[in-house]
Amino acid sequence: MKQKFAIFDIDHTILSEDSMLRFVRYGIRRYPRTSLNAARIGLYTVLYMLKLLSVEKVKEAYFHAIRYMDEPDLEHFYDTELSPRIYEAARQELVRVKKEGYHILLITASPHAYMKYFTKLPEVDAVIGTDLRRTEGRYSSAVEGHNNKGEEKAKRLRLYLERHGLEIDAEQSCAYSDSLSDWPLFRLVKHRYLINRSGAGLVRLQWKPETGSRRHEGKLLMIAAAILAATGQLFWAWSGDGILYLLLGFGCYGLGMLFMLRALAKEKLSVAYPLMCVSYVVAMLYGYWFLGEAITMAKAAAVVMIGIGVALTSYDR
Amino acid sequence: MTDSAALLLLVLMTLFGAAGGAMLKLFSSTRKLKWAACGLAAYGSGALLNIYLLRLLPYTLVVPANALTFVWAMVLAKWIFGERIRAVRWAGVALIMGGLVLLAV
């Protein structure tokens, strides 16, 4: 059956950065014993540039830390390091082409081991990546078969089509990449988009990483939620004086809850939860201004202790 | 009502909050409506207890006591979702408890 396809590269196409470098940093942070491996990465990279080493071998050094990770680690890597770096324009494009009935494939040279979590985006039908050898349910950093780049991408796409009994409707299909090495994919479709670069025969798309204010949106929402929580409870403290205060309290409570849910969708817990402590500081001030509850050294110390405590309980490398 | 009974209710209030969160999380993974209903009911009960307690206890104690919700959420995550808890997070629990004791005495 002929089907229209939308094919995307991932690094620097859907993501504003390179996932491999993020992975190296993440690995060292989470498993500090792998830091010595940085020396091997440097050495192998030089040897690779001198064409003394295969790309598969170099990748083995870059993905060394994966041997210590289990699935929750890899999913956590996707959630905290990759998902926040998806171009907003890429998200919108995925939604748009899905609505138009495209079959969406992400084809990447990076490991399927963590890139497979891109299927958490409801639009994505499948992710095809470089395979890493598995032993006893864990990944090793050794590349299984070939690095999924250039011709290999087109080869694996054909394999995917065969396996699912599909055929590309080239006239209607499109491909997105930041690299000319993806010409083997571009050749299979009529509509070819190059991200943030110009190339002969390719349509240039300009996708921008999230700007500062958008990046901090989650934090601002969380602070607003914290202030609303303190305010709502202040109204409730007055609820003996009339039903209006009770209702105002519920209004703040509901709005605060909504803000918090929005914030949690945008920000990781280890950042969002400690910001909730803003509400305790605001409460101390409200209590002093409106309720005549004194701010003592003991109370101030308690708020600091609780703040540090919440930061530690939501700590997450 | 004695102060210690009110403090107990305060602990219960935060337990309701955390249980509500855990049940909504169960809803999002199982898509079973009963978890959404139970979750909202738990949140609602927590809010009602909150209103009641604000009439019994100082406002500047009740608001920070909400931090206990994070402790319960962690304990529930360990029980229900089998999450591993690192030592540093237990240290956080100790600090929260210490801060609340400081506020309550």
Compact overview of the structure:
The complex is a heterodimer of chains A (317) and B (105). By secondary structure, chain A is α/β, with parallel strands linked by helices.
Features:
heterodimer, A: 317 residues, alpha/beta, Rossmann fold, 2 domains, 14 helices, elongated, B: 105 residues
Q: How many domains make up the coordinates of chain B?
A: 1
Order of helices and strands of chain A: EEHHHHHEHEEHEEHEEHHHHHH
Question: Helix amount of chain A, in percent?
Answer: 40-55%
DSSP summary, beta strand count of chain A = 9
* Largest sheet report of chain B: none
Question: What's the story with the biggest beta sheet of chain A?
Answer: 7 strands, mixed
Structural class of the helices, strands and pairings of chain A?
A: alpha/beta
CATH topology of the largest domain in chain A: Rossmann fold
CATH class of the largest domain in chain A: Alpha Beta
Strand order of the largest sheet of chain A: 5-4-3-2-7-8-9
Q: What is the element layout, followed by pairings?
A:
The complex is a heterodimer of chains A (317) and B (105).
Chain A: E1 2-3, E2 5-8, H1 19-30, H2 37-49, H3 55-62, H4 71-82, H5 88-99, E3 103-111, H6 112-115, E4 126-135, E5 138-144, H7 151-164, E6 167-168, E7 174-177, H8 183-186, E8 191-195, E9 203-205, H9 212-215, H10 217-237, H11 243-266, H12 269-275, H13 278-290, H14 297-313
Parallel strand pairs in A: 1-6, 2-3, 2-7, 3-4, 7-8, 8-9
Antiparallel strand pairs in A: 4-5
Chain B: H1 3-30, H2 33-56, H3 59-65, H4 68-81, H5 87-104
Helix pairs in contact in B: 1-2, 1-4
